[in-house]
Amino acid sequence: MTVTDPPAFSESSRSLDENAYQGLAGFRSALRRFLAFSEVAASAAGVTSQQYQAMLAIRVHPDRAIMIKELALQMLLQPNGAVQLVDRLVGAGLAERRQSSTDRRSVLVVMTDKGAALLERLAADHLQELSKHEPLLAESLRRLRSMERSGDAP
């Protein structure tokens, strides 16, 4: 299944209880609010939320360097989309391409100091915002886990 394929419709005979609906609604609400914040915060910093996500992927990858095909997988992008994303990061001075020291055919993407500084600020803001949604996320997940433990999950 690819990301663009719709999930198969489940014809489970079990019906969901109120906790499931409350948990799913709460989780989606908190997630949407966080993502809306992320869009605004990234834009205010002069990047897209996709560029911010790519910088996070680069930052957490071993040696803080990632091959474009790996970035594409992380970002759920086609390889040409990842190349365009890297082109924009490089153009903004937030990342650069480097030849791999272990495989001369491979090109790695690394953040520049400018990119690392921007990521540090954005990540701190995102953590602060995420903590605002922690109660709703925790309660929503608790409701969903209680269904799973009771065997009511479809």
Roughly what percent helix? 55-70%
Instruction: Let me know the average pLDDT.
Output: 90
Q: What oligomeric state best describes the polypeptide chains here? A: single chain
Helix and strand content put the structural class at: mainly alpha
- Terminus-to-terminus distance: 20 Å
How many strands, what sense, and barrel or not for the largest sheet? 3 strands, antiparallel
What is the helix/strand order? HHEHHEEH
* Backbone shape: elongated
Break the fold down into its secondary structure elements and pairings.
Elements: H1 18-44, H2 49-60, E1 65-67, H3 68-75, H4 79-91, E2 95-99, E3 107-111, H5 113-150
Antiparallel strand pairs: 1-3, 2-3
Task: Describe the structure concisely for a colleague.
This protein is mostly helical and 154 residues long.
Top keywords for this entry?
mainly alpha; 3 strands; 5 helices; 3-stranded antiparallel sheet; 154 residues
Walk me through what this model shows.
Helix content is 64%, strand content 8%. The protein has 154 residues and is mainly alpha-helical. The protein has a 3-stranded antiparallel beta sheet.
